[in-house]
Amino acid sequence: MSPGTVQSRRRLRLPFDGPQAEGRAGPRPVPLSRLTDSFLDGTSSMYLEELQRAWEDDPSSVDESWDYFFRNFVGQAATSPGISGQTIQESMRLLLLVRAYQVNGHMKARLDPLGLEVREVPHDLDPAFYGFTEADLDREFFIGVPVQTLRSILNRLERAYCGSVGYEYMHIADREQCNWLRDKIETVNPRGYSKERQKVILDRLIWSTLFESFLATKWVTAKRFGLEGGETLIPGMKEMFDRAADLGVENIVVGMPHRGRLNVLGNVFRKPLRHIFSEFSGGGLKAVDEDGLYSGTGDVKYHLGTSYDRPTRGGKRIHLSLVANPSHLEAVDPVVMGKTRAKQYYSNDLDRTKNLAVLIHGDGSFAGQGVVYETLHLSALPNYSIGGTIHIVVNNQVAFTTDPKAGRSSQYCTDVAKALNAPIFHVNGDDMEAVVHVFELAAEWRQKFHTDVVVDIVCYRRFGHNEMDEPSFTQPKMYQVIRNHPSALQMYESGLLELGHITKEDIDGIHNKVSSILNEEFNNSKDNIPNRRDWLSAYWAGFKSPEQISRIRNTGVKPEILKRVGEAITTFPPNFKPHKVIKRVFDERAQMIRTGEGVDWAVAEALAFATLLVEGNHVRLSGQDVERGTFSHRHAVVHDQETGEIHCPLDHIIINQNEEMFTVSNSSLSEFGVLGFELGYSMENPNSLVLWEAQFGDFANGAQVIFDQFLSSGESKWLRQTGLVVLLPHGYDGQGPEHSSARLERYLQVSFHFTTPHGPTLRKQIQESNWQVVNVTTPANYFHVLRRQIHRKFRKPLIVMAPKNLLRHPKCKSNLSEFDDVQGHPGFDKQGTRFKRLIKDQSDHSDLEDGIRRLVLCSGKVYYDLDEERQAVDAKDVAICRVEQLCPFPYDLVQRELKRYPNAEVVWCQEEPMNMGAYSYISPRLATAMRGSGRGGTEDIKYIGRPPSASTATGFLKVHQQEQKELIQRAIRNNGD
After folding, report:
1. Better pLDDT: 465 or 609
2. Residue 472's CB: how many other CB atoms inside 10 A?
3. Are the C-beta atoms of 544 and 300 separated by less than 8 Å?
4. In the prediction, which pLDDT does 81 show?
5. How many Cβ atoms are within 10 Å of 162's Cβ, its own excluded?
6. Of 395, 407, 450, 571, whose CB count within 10 A is highest?
């Protein structure tokens, strides 16, 4: 862009405007030049000379911004003898020097509190590089108002960009954002905060420091992952939360690793110290309420979360939530984002300013874990954006034992954030007031621009990875320095005493007060009993724990409602022009609703969503390609073929429907990040059906940490329920090893469900299980299992082995009567209309069938192949039962079928290899059911399926077809054994 066409830059001087920094005093120096933008947009000194001559001939011939510059430059040169010799070329070189500080000044900043880091200062920060000499230091130069000497310009640049804070922001393309930050950075008053603010900051730093030393004294051999070396994090966070509250934030959701977590819980969240001390003394994770004990297996102290209200310095109250998480660093990041997005939905926070996400990272994990980028990448996506996240990196300069040079390829651990145009503030963790300043600046940025921002606290670990570690094994030089290095508290106290801003008596008074409270809370911890409300939010009031039996509820819907919502989901707006194929699909769907026959999978799903919406529930479905559906079956969003406009039928189920009440969204190509996001979303409110669909079931492999560390075990470890639904397309169709198996065996392997019927009643089995795994074979059963997620007083994750070819299979249909709640209809039995955990043989069998020679138990789409083969050979002596719910195993219904067929050989048939699929899970449970019925045990179960294999499936279609044919024949035919 040529300088003469810079229409958007009217102000080329260096004005000083904007509010004075709160708590700072004194005259405000003029900010350094924004004019650098114009000079660096392709301007050469020769062009500048030509531009000046053109201006001298006719000022109106150049852009008004250049007219303004030349008028000021010439005027100042004429009236100030000290700059009479200044040339345009010198101005340009000086502005290049200013720009160099703005871009690379952070490389010269004093960031390492230990002084060990040796960094090469970029040559463009040397005035000599631009031709300036010692003789020029006291010359006056005009680059704005007022005229300044080169020495004063350099001093200001050094103070702004090369002190205890290093700013990276010039990679941001948005000019308004850059100018806002420049004004904030270049007008910082070095005299710091008022005495009153300093006393508040000191009090908070003393709390942070003495908390750690108290724990170290009381529990000498306990791992606590203390914050020693990074204690300034606590006052920084508290000041940031205060500032955020002043700017309109009401709720903050925090995710963080183990280091410093207890300090954050106690001093930032105000979790009662007696609770923390009780957990250290073996109090465990349990909660008592009016109905009895709610307990789990628990987790170590530094993984636990909490939720509290706390007052702010400005007199407001702010709600804080710390999300529980495992040692899998950064895995909690998308969970926090999802929970924040849900809070924004339920509080109608449309501009996303009331609910804030804060993520605390380690330097090694922020640079090394891929989920960090997956999470950052969600930040601006329409259905995942939360209005910006504040990222805090507690930069230990060592990741466990790994030096930065071995842990990342970039200069900084935060460089990944540049991809999202996030500003990054590196700060020396020993400079208490610099830490507070950048934390406040981060809060202001987020509230103004609603995008991510990163604060990188460069600190150290005084005691290594944990308190039992010996860090000098691997970092001997660093720990020689650390042993003699004063704490941030010692330095801050000394600095305030030297300035005369506080007395020794004041400091001793705060120390004594804090120590007294810590000891009092320690004494009270011995009789502490945690309360359930410390763990479960108000939205979950009345929901049952695994120890409390929840009544089973019907899930059928009145026929008139089914018809009404059925019409809504099959109707286009007037003049809307869908693709002709989709038009035909919707016409067929309308026919299904009218006749009540042949309802397919997609319509059943849409009916489940629509009826839940009518009942006032929120429904959210996300994943790769979920709007259309990977297999072009869903068409939840339809595009006008002429205008490109979109229509979502489920947005129009009720009058004045909230536009986000039903959300369906194609996600980024992420599994780990997006599944974590949806998990967090589902945890906020139980009255929401939240679903994540994998493009193919095996794609879930990329999100294994979320399954293992959160979804399968979160309730047991942290007393946190979720009703998240995971749809995993599964089934052997000859598509090769990558897209056949959703790895059913993995979900069953981590299922907590007894191999024998357990508990006072079978009704409790599903509540005692950690999740449910189903492989459903009818649209009606899919409808009911989705509605069941909402229609009960507890929540469990639901893993669905979703179909592929059954989406259009001519036999995989249901009648609308199977969805309703009318007695006598096919879906209604003596218990009512609900999900069928097992579907009995579809032949008209009595309660006792002596003539059946073989009972084939199976799950999923293989049923249709088996039934087709049975009909082909007229094998009336074979019964086929479908186990629709694999976990929890339906002992009662399996035993019912075993009694129905007393002489039948029992077969388990599956498509998957023997070492995969459900066989290993089913075998001991089926054997238990058989023993209970007097039918033998494990040795009496016949397995029919593919043999053990390393690969999930063959990649050759003909081989697949032959394998499938053989296993189906062996399951049905006498001569196939």
Report:
1. 609
2. 14
3. no
4. 56
5. 20
6. 395
Task: Retrieve residue 565's tokens.
Answer: 């919502």
Mean pLDDT of all residues in 920-939: 92
Least confident stretch, 161-175, 350-364, 528-542? 528-542
CB atoms within 10 A of CB 221: 6
pTM of the entire predicted model: 0.89
Q: Which two tokens stand for residue 393?
A: 């990196």
Least confident residue range of 271-280, 502-511, 726-735: 271-280
For residue 864, the one-letter residue type is: Y
Compute how many other C-beta atoms are within 10 angstroms of the C-beta atom of residue 493: 22
Report the percentage of the chain scoring pLDDT > 70. Answer: 84
Q: How many CA atoms lie within 13 A of 861 on its CB side?
A: 23
Give the span between the Cα atoms of 819 and 583, in whole angstroms.
25
pLDDT per residue over 751-782, tens digit each?
976 666 654 455 567 778 889 999 999 999 99
Identify the CA nearest to 261 among candidates 331, 353, 323: 323
Query: Is it true that the peptide bond before 888 is cis, omega within 30 degrees of 0?
Result: yes
Three-state DSSP state, 839? strand
DSSP designation for 449:
H
Q: In 789-889, which ranges are continuous DSSP H helix?
A: 862-873
Contacts of 906 by beta carbon, 8 Å cutoff, 6+ apart: 855, 857, 898, 926, 930, 935, 940, 941, 942
| Cα–Cα distance for residue pair 909/879, rounded to 1 Å | 12
- CA distance linking residue 707 with residue 688, whole number of Å: 20
Q: DSSP secondary-structure letter at 374?
A: H
665 sits in which H/E element: strand 662-666
More confident residue, 34 or 76: 76
Tokens standing for 540? Answer: 């979950």
Q: Going by DSSP bridges, is the β-strand pair 828-829/772-774 parallel, antiparallel, or unpaired?
A: unpaired
Q: Residue 960 CA to chain centroid, in angstroms?
A: 39
- Cβ-count burial 21-35 (b if 16+ within 10 Å, e if not): bebbeeeebbbbbbb
Which residues, at least 6 apart from 571, have a Cβ–Cβ distance to it below 8 Å?
590, 649
**Cα distance between residue 963 and residue 945, in whole Å:** 9
Q: Sign of dihedral through CA atoms 191, 192, 195, 198?
A: negative
How many CA atoms within 13 Å lie on the side-chain side of 240? 34
What is the phi-psi region of residue 596: left when phi exceeds 0, alpha when psi lies from -120 to 50, beta otherwise? left
Whether the Cβ atoms of residue 268 and residue 261 lie closer than 8 Å to each other = no
Return the beta strands (E) in 299-383 as ranges.
306-311, 317-322, 355-362
Alpha-carbon Rg for the chain, nearest whole angstrom, is: 34
pLDDT digits (tens, 9 = 90+) for 368-422: 989 999 999 999 999 999 999 999 999 988 776 777 777 778 889 999 999 999 9
Write down all domains in the chain, each with its CATH number in brackets.
3-163 (1.10.287.1150), 195-535 (3.40.50.970), 559-730+775-828 (3.40.50.12470), 841-976 (3.40.50.11610)
Q: Is the pLDDT of residue 295 over 70?
A: no
What would the 3-class secondary structure string for 141-191 be? Answer: ECCCCCCEEHHHHHHHHHHHHCCCEEEECCCCCCHHHHHHHHHHHHCCCCC
Burial class (CB in 10 A: 0-12, 13-18, 19+), 839: middle
**Strands of 424-428's sheet in order across:** 165-168, 424-428, 453-458, 389-395, 355-362, 251-255, 317-322, 306-311
**Predicted confidence (pLDDT) at residue 593 exceeds the cutoff of 90:** yes
User: Measured between alpha carbons, how far is 395 from 227 in angstroms, rounded to an integer?
Assistant: 11
Least confident range from 86-95, 355-364, 510-519, 569-578: namely: 86-95
Separation CA 111–CA 393 (nearest Å): 14
**Within 10 Å of residue 588's Cβ, how many Cβ atoms?**
13
For the record, the structure tokens of 742 come out as: 């959703």
Strands (E) located in 328-446: 355-362, 389-395, 424-428
Looking at the chain, how many residues does it have? 977
Which of the 8 DSSP states describes residue 905? E
CA gap 697, 76 in Å, rounded: 71
